[in-house]
Amino acid sequence: MVGDYSTPYNFAMANGTSGDHPISDLIMHGKHPFPPDIEDLVRRLHGLNPSIFNELAHAPFDWEAGRHLQAASTLMHGLIETHGDPIARRRLVAEYRNATKK
After folding, report:
1. Residue 22: closest CA among 37, 2, 7
2. Do residues 83 and 48 lie in contact, with contact meaning Cβ atoms separated by under 8 Å?
3. Is 11 within a domain?
4. 52 in helix, strand or coil?
């Protein structure tokens, strides 16, 4: 359930049900929580490394709300291009976090 403020990131643990997380909504339930270009990148990245979204914490909720879409696109393009390189992954995720600090 989105909006459970008892967790550190202001959302409850996703359990795979429709509406609990925008990534599972897209991948498992066929919903369209993101703009088409972001959906394409999410699908491509998920196909390469589904666990990468664990490192991104609340970011998909921001994308669902239309926030940080350019930074998300840059991040996911970089992650796709450097797939398998953990050093590049950590750098890209850190750059995304710095670019989207509230």
Report:
1. 2
2. yes
3. no
4. helix
In angstroms, the CA 27 to CA 48 distance is 13
- Residues 42 and 25: their CA atoms lie apart, in Å, by 12
Is 10 inside any structural domain?
no
How far is residue 22's CA from residue 34's CA, in Å, rounded to a whole number? 8
Q: Which of 61, 47, 80 is nearest to 4 (CA)?
A: 61
Collapsing DSSP states into helix, strand and coil, what is residue 73? helix
pLDDT tens, position by position, 45-75: 999 999 999 889 899 999 999 999 999 999 9
| pTM score of the predicted model | 0.82
Number of domains in the chain: 1
47/80 Cα distance (integer angstroms)? 10
Single-letter amino acid, residue 66: G
